[in-house]
């Protein structure tokens, strides 16, 4: 078989493959639910209900989507320039670490000063963490996929070391967790009385800013040019190395904001289970959003909904929650094929 | 015990070879994929799936060797998914690879929960036992290390020879290497680049899964979540370190494993006891990054690695 570009795709060709990908994902999830001895319709219904069915469920989904918007943006920005940042997990913890260090009483400032300071320093920490592999890539040609992946493991061990050492909460009954943040270091509620913090607002604002950078600035243009064709960009006089470094700083900073928002907004202290893989899930979010920053928000809500819904479904009918992860992996793989098929047709030899 | 005395103990070298074995399988698997031009980031998840599949097969009554075969087959299955998406469809090998890792890991965990609901600790199996080779295993220090291992370790070493022979001494190996260097030339000879690349990814993925199975069937006797813990990514670094050659990759794996075995022992010395254990656990990952940096200058990357081949284009 061979792929042939389609010159003028019809509406059917642009819409049918993604729709089929989603349908196939649902069918596969149903079959897996049946394998677990459950009624597939009730499983899917329970997932939807658990994600969006009540005010409580919806707020839970929005809270879960918040870090995913940040990591999704981080991945989208990087992948668009073909900088393969798989290290959002570590960058998230870098941001969280900064908040845990500064916010537990070290800086005794009013909230109006303390929160922006922590956010900016968190971004700096995340940016530096991605700067290392980005420099190794630009200067020495070391593949950033493997280095960013390995740094995830190194940094998590580093956080674990600090949580069992200098950062350990003396009042923590021996658990490896950091001391609670002071009130001034906590992000306020977005709407009084609702369990949703300003991290979500910040995530939406970030998505708009990233969209503006991507579509309305020279940097955004250069990033896209580098991503589309590195050699052509070089030939056109774009400083490819410098653009990649800037991309890395932006991407690392965005991922770190996820850590900032989780610690200052939701948890109030740092533990090793702060993130159940938000950094990796950000890759799925970004891909489902076709690397579009505004799409990231929608994709993050969808992905968060599946996770939250699967948790609640699992409690009700006992199908393992890993069904959510399988659904997302399947959706990711089928969606990349579907997107391809909107632009190419398969020709038999 | 003095650090230098560690090198003279047989148990140290035995541990090093044992730690190296799963890395050898998986590194060879990745090497085959990359020599054919496909980066397989599914490795981490495929190792998880292989670890579970082999162990589960034995737990449900199959023999040890059939268990290894089951792991290999499961690996090939994920390899098939990976290769369909990356070879004929030519999709991003980064995205597909990570997707396959996610799919393999999550479906393994799902299967584990379905097969063993409500267990707090996973059941154990009777794993491969060390097989002492007469006379040779009596050589001081290296004898027990090289000749008193489990059959699966011997298979790992045999695989290095087999893979090297096939890659460099057979028409098939030539075709695989050419598919990764100059696919146009392969197509010009009337061979199918698609078939060669897909086959390489499937066989390579099978070997990765056997590497995972080594963990549950030889190194330990049970399956735990997170037990692969980045070994797959380390193997990708080892392929680069080994300059895409089986012999050098073997050397890299042993060197790496020796360092790992050393850090475990240094932890137990008075010197090591004062250092947080996380520092030691970080070492393998830091070492992998250093290996990548050192080798970056003289890496002989396959020419068409990560370049999709579409017959229509020239």
Describe this structure in words.
Chain A: It holds the Pfam family BPD_transp_2. Chain A: Its main location: membrane. Chain A: InterPro entries: ABC_transp_permease (IPR001851). The complex is a heterodimer of chains A (about 350) and B (about 325). Chain A is mostly helical. Chain A has a domain at about 70-280. Chain A has 13 helices and two strands; from the N terminus they run E-H-H-H-H-H-H-H-H-H-H-H-H-H-E. Chain A has a two-stranded antiparallel ribbon with strand order 1-2. Chain B has helices at about 5, 10-35, 45-60, 65-85, 95-115, 140-145, 150-170, 170-180, 185-190, 195-220, 230-240, 245-265, 270-275, 275-295. Chain B has one domain (about 5-115, about 150-300): Orthogonal Bundle (ABC transporter involved in vitamin B12 uptake, BtuC), CATH 1.10.3470. Chain B has 14 helices and no strands.
Order of helices and strands of chain A: EHHHHHHHHHHHHHE
The rounded distance between the terminal residues' Cα atoms of chain B is 63 Å
Tally the structural domains of chain B. Answer: 1
Shape of chain B: globular
Low-confidence spans of chain B: none
- Structural category of chain A is mainly alpha
- Spatially, the strands of the biggest sheet of chain A line up as 1-2
Number of helices of chain A: 13
Number of extended strands of chain B:
0
- Characterize the quaternary organization of these chains: heterodimer
Shape label of chain A = globular
What structural class results from the helix and strand content of chain B? mainly alpha
Give the % helix of chain B.
55-70%
Q: Compute the separation of the termini of chain A in Å.
A: 6 Å
Q: Largest sheet of chain A, described in full? A: 2 strands, antiparallel
What top-tier CATH class of chain B fits best?
Answer: Mainly Alpha
Number of helices of chain B: 14
Q: Provide the residue-averaged pLDDT of chain B.
A: 92
What is the radius of gyration of chain B? 20 Å
Q: If classified by CATH, what would the architecture of chain B be?
A: Orthogonal Bundle
Q: Share of helix among residues of chain A? A: over 70%
């Amino acid at each position: 078989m061979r792929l042939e570009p389609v010159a003028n795709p019809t509406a059917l060709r642009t819409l049918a493959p993604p729709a089929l990908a989603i349908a196939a994902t649902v069918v596969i999830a149903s079959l897996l639910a049946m394998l677990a001895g459950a009624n597939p319709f009730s499983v899917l219904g329970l997932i939807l209900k658990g994600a969006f069915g009540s005010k409580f469920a919806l707020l839970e989904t929005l809270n879960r989507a918040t870090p995913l918007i940040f990591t999704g943006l981080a991945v989208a920005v990087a992948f668009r320039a073909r900088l393969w940042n798989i290290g959002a997990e570590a960058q998230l913890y870098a941001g969280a670490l900064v908040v845990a260090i500064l916010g537990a009483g070290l800086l005794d400032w009013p909230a109006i000063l303390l929160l922006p300071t922590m956010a900016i320093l968190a971004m700096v920490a995340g940016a530096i963490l991605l700067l290392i592999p980005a420099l190794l890539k630009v200067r020495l040609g070391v593949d950033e996929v493997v280095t960013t992946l390995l740094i995830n493991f190194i940094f998590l061990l580093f956080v674990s070391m600090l949580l069992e050492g200098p950062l350990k909460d003396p009042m923590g009954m021996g658990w490896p967790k950091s001391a609670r943040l002071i009130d001034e270091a906590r992000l306020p509620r977005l709407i009084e009385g609702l369990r949703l913090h300003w991290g979500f607002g910040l995530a939406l604002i970030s998505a708009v800013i990233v969209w503006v950078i991507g579509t309305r600035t020279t940097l955004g243009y250069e990033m896209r040019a580098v991503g589309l064709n590195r050699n052509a960009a070089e030939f056109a006089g774009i400083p490819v190395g410098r653009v990649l470094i800037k991309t890395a700083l932006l991407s690392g900073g965005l991922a770190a904001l996820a850590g900032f928002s989780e610690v200052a907004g939701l948890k109030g202290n740092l533990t090793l289970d702060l993130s159940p893989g938000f950094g990796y899930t950000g890759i799925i979010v970004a891909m489902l959003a076709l690397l579009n920053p505004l799409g990231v928000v929608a994709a993050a809500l969808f992905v968060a909904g599946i996770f939250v819904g699967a948790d609640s479904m699992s409690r009700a009918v006992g199908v393992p929650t890993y069904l959510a992860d399988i659904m997302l992996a399947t959706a990711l793989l089928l969606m990349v094929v579907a997107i391809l098929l909107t632009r190419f047709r398969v020709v038999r030899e | 015990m003095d650090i230098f005395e560690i090198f003279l103990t047989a148990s140290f070298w035995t541990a090093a070879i044992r730690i190296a074995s799963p890395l050898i399988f998986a590194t060879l698997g990745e090497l085959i994929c990359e020599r054919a031009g496909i980066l397989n980031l599914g490795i981490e998840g495929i190792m998880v799936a292989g670890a579970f599949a082999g162990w589960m097969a034995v737990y449900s009554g199959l023999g040890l060797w059939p268990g290894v075969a089951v792991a290999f087959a499961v690996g090939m299955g994920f390899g098939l998914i990976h290769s369909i998406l990356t070879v004929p469809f030519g999709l991003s090998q980064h995205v597909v690879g990570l997707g396959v890792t996610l799919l393999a890991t999550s479906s393994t965990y799902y299967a584990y929960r379905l097969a063993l609901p409500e267990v707090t600790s996973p059941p154990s199996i009777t794993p491969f036992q060390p097989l002492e080779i007469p006379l040779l295993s009596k050589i001081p220090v290296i004898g027990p290390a090289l000749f008193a291992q489990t059959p699966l370790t011997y298979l790992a070493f045999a695989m290095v020879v087999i893979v090297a022979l096939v890659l460099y001494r057979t028409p098939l190996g030539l075709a695989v290497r050419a598919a990764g260097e100059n696919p146009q030339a392969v197509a010009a000879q009337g061979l199918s680049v698609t078939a060669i690349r897909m086959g390489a990814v499937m066989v390579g993925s099978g070997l990765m899964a056997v590497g995972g199975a080594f963990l549950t069937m030889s190194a330990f006797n049970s399956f735990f979540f997170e037990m692969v813990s980045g070994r797959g990514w380390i193997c990708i670094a080892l392929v680069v370190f080994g300059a895409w050659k089986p012999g050098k990759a073997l050397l890299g794996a042993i060197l790496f494993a020796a360092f790992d075995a050393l850090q475990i022992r240094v932890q137990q010395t008075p010197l090591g006891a004062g250092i947080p254990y996380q520092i030691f656990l970080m070492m393998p990952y830091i070492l992998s990054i250093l290996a990548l940096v050192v080798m970056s200058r003289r890496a002989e990357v396959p020419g068409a690695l990560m370049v999709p081949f579409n017959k229509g284009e020239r």
